[in-house]
Each structure stands twice: as structure tokens, then as C-alpha cells.
Design a protein that fits this description.
This protein is mainly α and 152 residues long. It is 66% helix and 0% strand. It has two domains: 73 residues, 434 Repressor (Amino-terminal Domain), CATH 1.10.260; 59 residues. 16% of the residues are buried.
Length: 152
């Protein structure tokens, strides 16, 4: 159960972490962050002043706009770290699986009548190409070059 004290501690830790990156003289101005996230400047100021905590949706927007530095600054208060942006060709396994499943569904619909006709073929080809690209991005994310890049 989350007690009032734990909620206050989490709120204060988020306020401290956000304050490292947002505000006057920081990496992100409040107004610019409001524009980038769709969260009002007043609401962001409330987060910075510890008056309120962001919803999960707004937390995601803030993490996306400010980046992994904010995530790590907040998580450090809980003894955790290691968040990093997903870069370049890296592809999550879940996204590759989702793309592959969608292509399989397209192919299954096209083959319901036992053949792929001229109206179905463009969709089948498009989904097959997307699947191939997703799988290549996934493999690149685990390949020797990606491992070396993470070590650097």
C-alpha cells in the first residue's frame, strides 16, 4: 500500500529530478517543455514546486521530452539507473513480433480463398517488407556492432 508519506517522498524525488533539467537556466524552459508535451506550463510549475505529481501519461510525456537523464535522475533516488534512449536501427523484440503478427494476419486474410489476387498482393508485399525491415532492425540491435556501441 502506498502511504501518504511514500507518495510525498516520490513526489519530492520527482520534483528534485525534474528541477535538474527544467526551469530558468536549465536545459528546458517551462514554456518550451509545455509546448513539446502538451502539458500546461502551470501544471509543469506545480510539478517543479512539489504541489502535485504527474499522471502516468504525463510522466511518459515528460520522460520522452526531457530524455533518459530525467528517468535516471528520478530512479537514482530508488537505487536504480540504466535507462537509455533506443537509438538508430535498434528495434524492440515486441515491436518486431507485432509487425510479424500483422503481416501474418494480412497473409492469412489474403489466402482465405486459397490464392492471393491482384487486389491483395500490394498489402501482402508491403507487410512482408515491413516485417523484413523490423527483423533486420532487431538483429542489428543485438549484433556485434550494437554490442560494441553499448560498451563505448
Amino acid at each position: 500500500m502506498i502511504t501518504a508519506e511514500r507518495h510525498a517522498n516520490a513526489r519530492d524525488r520527482f520534483r528534485d529530478a525534474l528541477g535538474l533539467f527544467v526551469g530558468s537556466g536549465r536545459r528546458h524552459a517551462i514554456g518550451a517543455l509545455a509546448g513539446a508535451t502538451g502539458i500546461s506550463a502551470t501544471q509543469i510549475s506545480d510539478y517543479l514546486n512539489g504541489r502535485t505529481t504527474p499522471s502516468v501519461a504525463n510522466l511518459g510525456l515528460l520522460f520522452g521530452a526531457v530524455g533518459s537523464d530525467l528517468v535516471n535522475a528520478w530512479l537514482a533516488h530508488f537505487g536504480l539507473c540504466g535507462a537509455r534512449p533506443i537509438e538508430g536501427p535498434e528495434q524492440s523484440a515486441q515491436a518486431a513480433l507485432s509487425t510479424t503478427a500483422a503481416a501474418t494476419a494480412t497473409l492469412a486474410r489474403a489466402l482465405e480463398d486459397g490464392r492471393i489476387d491482384h487486389t491483395e498482393l500490394p498489402d501482402v508485399i508491403r507487410d512482408a517488407r515491413e516485417t523484413a525491415h523490423a527483423l533486420l532492425r532487431l538483429c542489428d540491435g543485438y549484433g556485434p556492432r550494437a554490442v560494441e556501441a553499448r560498451r563505448a
